[in-house]
Design goal:
Layout lengths: L1 H26 E3 L5 E7 L8 E4 L9 H4 L1 E11 L2 E11 L8 E2 L1 H4 E2 L4 E2 L1 H25 L3
Antiparallel strand pairs: 1-2, 2-5, 3-4, 4-5, 5-6, 7-8
Length: about 140
């Protein structure tokens, strides 16, 4: 009985982790200019405008580009009762940088035009959570 319970809990945990990564991966795309774009469609009209947003990481033990994440450009598009939010130009302070720079080189293999494997394995959920928190916070501020 204990073995069955352990096996079922292991399968459920694995499925939940896989499902979270899959949802995070769906939000990220590489556009035709080899740039990272995060997008999400909300089924309501919001009053937020396109702007620069601050990104804050509150997790420890992550890659340097995520630990020192700084900002991104938020682009808001409205259609009927939907709002599409795009996050582009994600910037971070590097190990030696005085100015924030794009994280694209850390995430995208520019020769192949695809995500780097380590991003898909360990960083995609973290970056998705950072962006999701920032966008949700902005939506909540404007919904009262």
């Amino acid at each position: 009985m204990k073995n069955l319970f352990f096996t079922l809990s292991l399968i459920l945990t694995t499925f939940c982790c896989f499902s979270a990564k899959l949802n995070a991966q769906i939000n990220f795309k590489i556009n035709s200019n080899n740039e990272l774009v995060w997008s999400k469609v909300y089924d309501s009209h919001t009053d937020i405008q396109s702007q620069e947003i601050n990104l804050v990481n509150n997790k420890k033990g992550v890659a340097i580009y995520l630990r020192d994440i700084h900002s991104a450009d938020l682009i808001v598009q409205h259609r009927a009762n939907q709002t599409r939010v795009l996050v582009k130009n994600i910037k971070s302070f590097g190990a030696m940088d005085n100015e924030p720079s794009s994280v694209n080189r850390n995430i995208i293999n520019s020769k192949k035009g695809e995500f780097r494997k380590f991003f898909l394995k360990r960083d995609i959920e973290i970056l998705n959570d950072i962006i999701e928190r920032s966008v949700t916070s902005l939506l909540e501020e404007n919904s009262w």
